[in-house]
Structures are given as structure tokens and as C-alpha cells.
Design brief:
Layout (H helix, E strand, L loop, with lengths): L13 E3 L2 E4 L2 E3 L1 E3 L4 E3 L5 E3 L10 H9 L3 E3 L3 H4 L5 H6 L2 H4 L4 H10 L3 E2 L6 H9 L4 E5 L8 E3 L5 H11 L4 E5 L5 E4 L8 E12 L2 E10 L10 E4 L7
Parallel strand pairs: 4-7
Antiparallel strand pairs: 1-2, 2-3, 5-6, 8-11, 9-10, 9-11, 12-13, 13-14, 14-15
């Protein structure tokens, strides 16, 4: 039943006669799952190769030749998944080009998001002195890495993180309290108190699915002791 699917590293594929192969199996469609993160020097590092890009030259050439279909293409690592986009949505220079209903939607859906600049003394003071109201995130990272929630930290640790975030590829967001409720994880005998949130999948601007995650901590990613919860939609 269904199509033949398999997991492979891009270093393992071969590009021959305008076709992509893995262990002699022709690849017609690829679903990417590549992460990227910010190094200590502020440079981004895509996790698509281990040492250098020559490891994946066959795969890159296939993409350049457009000889396979990709879902979640490479630009999503650098553009669509870059959290700095959220700060742009709140930038007054960008908002000049948005319609009133678009700005209203952004205000409802996207927490106030800024980049912390050394010349913005007012924002710096607010963030330093009101740690419980803010979250700091690396613009590129995943699995709850590079996320610093003020409520989780001591003031001295928060001060260090804020200092290291000035003119660095990180964003500052207003913290949004998500509710806690009793959840019954599959591998637990009893219900436990967890924080939950729901994410909406959009395809070509239309809602196409939901994802609900929960965790005992404020970070609800699966790799931060989180779990996935089933989602049901009922029509009245």
C-alpha cells in the first residue's frame, strides 16, 4: 500500500543521467528536514552538511537542474524559518506597505517582536527590567534551542543573555502566557499538568492542518520534554 518511501542523508544520494538515486532507487520526490542555527560569531550554519558543501555536490546539482520535486525547499531554512521576519512585520517602515486588515491580523496573531539594537536604549531598559514579560530567541534555530524565557531565568542570567543579544541575530518578543491543563500522556499512568499550544499549517495561504504540542515546561517542543496531542475539529 502507498508509495515506496525511505529516510536518507543527502551525502548518500547520487546524481546520474539527470536522475537522483539512493542505493539504486530512483528518487522522484524529496521532503527536506534540515535545521539551521546561529553560531557564537553570529553567522548562520545550515545543518545540511557536516564539514563542507562538497559532501552534497550531487544533490545540489540535481536541485539546480530541477530534476526532482522538493517539499520544504532549502530557502525555507534561511527565509521562511527566519524569526527576524516576525520583527519585520512589526516594523513601521514595512507597515507602510500593508493594508489595515493585514496590520490588524498581525497584531492579533504575532506577538510584538523586535531586534535589540545598541541605539535603542528605551527597549533595552524595558527588556532588562521586565524579564517576565519577554522571550529572547535566536533568529535561526530549532527544537527549543536558542530560546530564553525570562520567567524561567534568574535576573543575573537574564542580564547576561540580554547583553549578548544586542546587535546579535536574535529577536525580542513579548511573552504570551499559554494556559496549562491536565493531560494524559500515552506513557503515563496518570494525568499531569502541562502547557499546550496549537499551530496552524498554511498551504498557499489556506489553513490545511493543525498541530498541538504540550510540555511540563514553558517550552513545548518535543525535544524539550514535549509531546504531541491529537486535535479534533467539530462543526456545529
Amino acid at each position: 500500500m502507498g508509495y515506496d518511501a525511505f529516510h536518507a542523508y543527502v551525502q548518500e544520494v547520487k546524481y546520474e543521467k539527470e536522475n537522483l538515486f539512493y542505493q539504486n532507487k530512483k528518487i522522484d520526490l524529496v521532503h527536506h528536514k534540515f535545521d539551521a542555527f546561529i553560531k557564537e560569531n553570529g553567522q548562520d550554519r545550515p545543518c545540511i552538511y557536516e564539514h563542507n558543501i562538497n559532501e552534497i555536490k550531487d544533490y545540489i546539482q540535481c536541485l539546480k537542474d530541477k530534476n526532482t520535486v522538493c517539499i520544504n525547499p532549502l530557502p525555507s531554512m534561511k527565509v521562511a524559518e527566519n524569526k527576524r521576519v516576525l520583527a519585520l512585520l512589526h516594523d513601521r517602515n514595512i507597515r507602510k506597505f500593508l493594508k489595515k486588515n493585514e496590520i490588524e491580523a498581525i497584531n492579533k496573531l504575532v506577538p510584538d517582536t523586535r531586534c535589540l539594537k545598541s541605539n535603542d536604549k528605551e527597549l533595552l531598559s524595558k527588556v532588562l527590567n521586565n524579564k517576565n514579560e519577554y522571550v529572547i530567541k535566536n533568529v535561526l534555530d530549532t527544537r527549543s534551542r536558542g530560546v530564553f524565557i525570562g520567567k524561567d531565568l534568574e535576573q543575573k542570567d537574564w542580564k547576561i543573555i540580554v547583553k549578548n543579544s544586542i546587535d546579535f541575530p536574535r529577536i525580542i518578543q513579548k511573552y504570551v502566557q499559554h494556559k496549562s491543563e491536565m493531560v494524559h500522556p500515552i506513557n503515563q499512568e496518570n494525568k499531569i499538568k502541562m502547557f499546550s499550544n496549537i499551530a496552524l499549517y498554511l498551504v498557499k495561504g489556506k489553513g490545511s492542518g493543525l498541530l498541538c504540542r504540550a510540555s511540563t515546561g514553558l517550552k513545548s517542543n518535543f525535544y524539550a520534554s514535549g509531546i504531541l496531542r491529537p486535535v479534533y475539529i467539530f462543526n456545529d
